[in-house]
């Protein structure tokens, strides 16, 4: 076979990515074992029937041909209206491009701002695809390390240091954050914005969890002074409307950047199916009520987990102020997040994600997805805590 490009063969960095626990759990399930999956961010309640009805009606009505590459105008306008209402930043359809999901938007955003070889910064812990997405654009990923003691919030000082050391072109942030559940407070975002301005960085803001805020408020950095012309916002209906498989998202940014992104989409995805866009427009037209309905189970389950954790003192939670996850500190057991997750799966058939799956900053932690019914989640987390307590006691006795 002829040689493949270095761009495609270097998307992954090689070695373990920490996802072995997930794949092992799926293998066990396929073999008929009863495994409780608290791994990936997939809603246990699927897309609302009314959205599926709208999708069906549009497809049967004939909207199955090529749709406009930037997105149908009504949907672009609806996204623009949503963004302007929630942030106060003037936004029109010319500031919006519809994409095949948030992942496509992440790739496109980095293509827009990074030339081959440029450095793109991102925050560790990170959503699993971030470094691979950056490599796929022929940019070089460099992580900003964070600390559990700071709720994994990035330091503007560290951003500036990395930007100057590596002559970086962009910074990718994610609030509410996957995997940590942290919601970046205003003062943190203002410091990040100042670092971007001072170091001439594009800011790519992944805001796909913006409807899942349990404590605090969601602030889009595009709304901060000096940021509207250097920020690309990635959004999606995957999490807000339980439409993960519909692959519908968007990029919001300066008009000139959006026009260039439309040129990219014309040469790559050639748009999103019209009937999915029509269903997405219908979903947005349902307003806050539907978004709150989708978010409600995760708000309730986050409180449930905190109640269970309050019954013991071995496992502690990073402040889970948003998103459908809780990051738990299990360092008292003496195990890495990876080893703890493997042992938990072996002993109790409960699957969680090791913190190491999301970088090095969350070593000694695990991520729990709030994606099973309340009763099962409560039992699973209580079992997890009891298991951790036993490991910690065994460690104490051994020493």
Blueprint of the fold:
Blueprint: H1 6-9, H2 20-30, E1 36-38, H3 49-60, H4 73-87, E2 96-99, H5 101-113, E3 119-124, H6 130-136, E4 140-145, H7 156-166, E5 170-174, H8 186-198, E6 202-206, E7 231-236, E8 249-252, H9 255-267, H10 274-285, H11 288-309, E9 316-317, E10 325-329, H12 337-348, E11 350-354, E12 365-369, H13 374-398
Parallel strand pairs: 1-11, 3-4, 3-5, 5-6, 6-7
Antiparallel strand pairs: 2-8, 7-8, 9-10, 10-12, 11-12
User: From the alpha-carbon coordinates, what is the Rg to the nearest angstrom?
Assistant: 21 Å
In total, how many domains does the architecture comprise?
2
Query: What is the fold-level CATH name, i.e. the topology of the largest domain?
Result: Aspartate Aminotransferase, domain 2
Q: State the name of the first-level CATH class of the largest domain.
A: Alpha Beta
Give the low-confidence spans.
none
Question: Helix and strand string, N-terminal first?
Answer: HHEHHEHEHEHEHEEEHHHEEHEEH
- What's the mean pLDDT score? 96
Number of strands: 12
Euclidean distance between termini CA atoms: 56 Å
Q: Largest sheet, if any? A: 7 strands, mixed
Describe the structure.
The protein has 399 residues and is α/β, with parallel strands linked by helices. It folds into 2 domains: 6-46 and 289-398, Aspartate Aminotransferase, domain 1, CATH 3.90.1150.10; 65-286, Aspartate Aminotransferase, domain 2. The chain has helices at 6-9, 20-30, 49-60, 73-87, 101-113, 130-136, 156-166, 186-198, 255-267, 274-285, 288-309, 337-348, 374-398, and strands at residues 36-38, 96-99, 119-124, 140-145, 170-174, 202-206, 231-236, 249-252, 316-317, 325-329, 350-354, 365-369. Strands 2-8-7-6-5-3-4 form a 7-stranded mixed β-sheet, sandwiched between helices. It has a 5-stranded mixed β-sheet with strand order 1-11-12-10-9, sandwiched between helices. A hairpin with a 7-residue loop joins strand 9 and strand 10. Helix 4 (73-87) runs parallel beside helix 10, helix 7 (156-166) runs parallel beside helix 8 and helix 11 (288-309) runs parallel beside helix 13 (374-398). The mean pLDDT is 96.
